């Protein structure tokens, strides 16, 4: 119990960890609000308000993401440290899109809180969603490529000699994590596409509880990965 509590507290001490918790609360309450919409409208309304506030919290915290993103991009460069050139190119393009996303996201935030007046606020929301979809799609493609590279590497290993080795086991664990990431990013892509205007992809076709369900599953997968990665790092060190 003490160990689990310490792990949760360590998670809450980091920005990424808190974001995962807030995200999970946002989508689980959104799902619950949709489920109780007909049974208990008052409870559904309260859950929807809570979900909205959690979403606003995440949007506000993203205002501080620019400098960490710049630092990450400078360290990443053109992706020369990636396993292969394709992953490097995808990663480099993704970083450019993310740098476009953050200022647009800030403009949308200011529009929402009436700090900025623009003629066509919906266009900014659409641009925000398009950049979000593009970023997730590229991250998904990069993760699929990473999984494929690991599979190719694994096929060249002499299993009879290396299956019991620690390095082979670590490769298998990392590959499983990439497979889980592919599932999570696929869910995120479905969710992001639903925020687009009607007529673009599947924009506007999901009900609130469906968005909540997709977001909840993705969030729980993200929480699992957070703790699983910590265990992988502790085993490899």
- Provide the β-strand percentage band: under 5%
Radius of gyration: 20 Å
User: How many strand elements?
Assistant: 0
Binned, the helix content reads over 70%
Residue-averaged pLDDT: 92
Low-confidence stretches: none
How does the major sheet shape up? none
Structural class: mainly alpha
The span between the termini is 24 Å
SSE pattern: HHHHHHHHH
The number of helices is 9
Sum up the overall morphology in one term. globular
Would you kindly provide a written description of the structure presented here, covering whatever features stand out?
The chain is an all-alpha fold and 237 residues long. The chain is 80% helix and 0% strand. It is built from nine helices and no strands. It has helices at 2-12, 15-35, 41-61, 66-76, 85-112, 121-155, 159-162, 166-194, 208-236. Helix 6 packs antiparallel against helix 8 (166-194). The chain is globular and about 60 Å long. It starts with a helix and ends with a helix.
């Amino acid at each position: 119990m003490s160990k689990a509590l310490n792990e949760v507290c360590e998670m809450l001490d980091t920005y990424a960890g808190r974001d995962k918790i807030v995200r999970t609360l946002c989508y689980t309450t959104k799902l619950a609000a949709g489920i109780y919409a007909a049974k208990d409208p008052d409870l559904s309304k309260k859950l929807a308000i809570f979900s909205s506030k959690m979403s606003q919290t995440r949007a506000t915290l993203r205002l501080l993401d620019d400098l960490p993103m710049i630092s990450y991009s400078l360290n990443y460069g053109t992706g020369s440290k990636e396993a292969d050139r394709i992953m490097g190119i995808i990663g480099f393009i993704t970083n450019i899109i993310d740098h476009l996303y953050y200022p647009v996201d800030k403009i949308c935030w200011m529009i929402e809180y009436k700090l900025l007046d623009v003629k066509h606020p919906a266009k900014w929301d659409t641009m925000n969603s398009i950049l979000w979809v593009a970023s997730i799609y590229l991250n998904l493609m990069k993760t699929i490529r990473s999984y494929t590279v690991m599979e190719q590497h694994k096929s060249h290993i002499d299993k009879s000699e290396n299956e019991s080795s620690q390095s082979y086991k670590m490769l298998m664990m990392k590959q499983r994590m990439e497979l889980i990431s592919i599932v999570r990013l696929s869910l995120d892509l479905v969710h992001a596409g639903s925020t687009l205007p009607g007529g673009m992809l599947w924009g506007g076709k999901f009900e609130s509880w469906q968005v909540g369900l997709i977001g909840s599953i993705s969030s729980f997968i993200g929480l699992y990965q957070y703790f699983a990665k910590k265990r992988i790092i502790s085993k490899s060190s």
